[in-house]
Amino acid sequence: MPRTPKARPTTDGPGESIPPSRGKNKGVRAANPQKPAKTRKAKAMDPATVREIFRRFAAAMPEPKGELEHSNAYTLLVAVVLSAQATDAGVNKATRPLFAIADTPSNMLALGEDTVREYVKSIGLYRTKAKNVIALSARLIADHGGEVPGNRDILETLPGVGRKTANVVMNIAFGHPTMAVDTHVFRVANRIGLSFGKTPLSVEEDLIRCIPSDYAMHAHHWLILHGRYLCKARKPECWRCLVADLCQFTPKTPAPSA
């Protein structure tokens, strides 16, 4: 029976992209009927532990904020579109002068694609992103009276906007408890044991299901910041993690020697 190919995580939105596998057979061992491959057993985390994890996050940072600079829903949308496969710091550096002269769809459209491209050329994939910024600005004017719609399904129809970008806008601009899964959230959720999902959508669904509703509004910000500054991809700093005793990741990274 043919195998169904695995879906790859998306790279749309803030933070680093989730890297695809390098090489067709990387990490795949030849079949050996006498020595079955080891697999990680998924153990569902109990609700009390999940609540304690987010209680600690909330105690340490009661009002977490996204790090993309913006002044309204439109500049937030543009910033998130530009942040795919780029750092927030790099996007902020490019958008400060851009948003100073174009913080509405009509002003952005008046600049034109060539000018927008010059402003964002320090960002990866800048040609495609400049094209999308102009196209989504035109769509907002034509179909939504120049306003950013507060509807995730409609947001996803705009050029350059995927589910995660739409989730970020719905959360920050419109106050919905959506779960934006970028590479940091994807990694942290699987390491801690909040999800064992293999795609961003499955991780999103797991998090929505397990995170207590009173922590849902800020949950993805806590996870993003935790992954960006502490639970790093190559070497998580477990020795200073506030949920290390609850996290299922092993082996824990020891504190560096003095």
What labels would you give this structure?
single chain; 258 residues; mainly alpha; Endonuclease Iii, domain 2; Endonuclease III, domain 1; 2 domains; 11 helices; 47% helix; 0% strand; elongated; disordered N terminus
Number of domains: 2
Tally of contiguous helical segments = 11
Query: pLDDT below 50 for ≥5 consecutive residues: which ranges?
Result: 1-40
CATH class of the largest domain: Mainly Alpha
| CATH architecture classification name of the largest domain | Orthogonal Bundle
Counting helices, strands and paired strands, the structural category is mainly alpha
CATH topology heading of the largest domain? Endonuclease III, domain 1
Gyration radius (Cα, Å) is 20 Å
Rounded mean pLDDT score: 87
What is the CATH homology-level superfamily of the largest domain? Answer: Hypothetical protein, domain 2
Total beta strand runs:
0
- Estimate percent helicity: 40-55%
Describe the global form: elongated
How much beta, percentage-wise?
under 5%
> What is the N-to-C order of secondary-structure elements (H for helix, E for strand)?
HHHHHHHHHHH
Distance between the termini: 55 Å
Task: Describe the largest sheet.
Answer: none
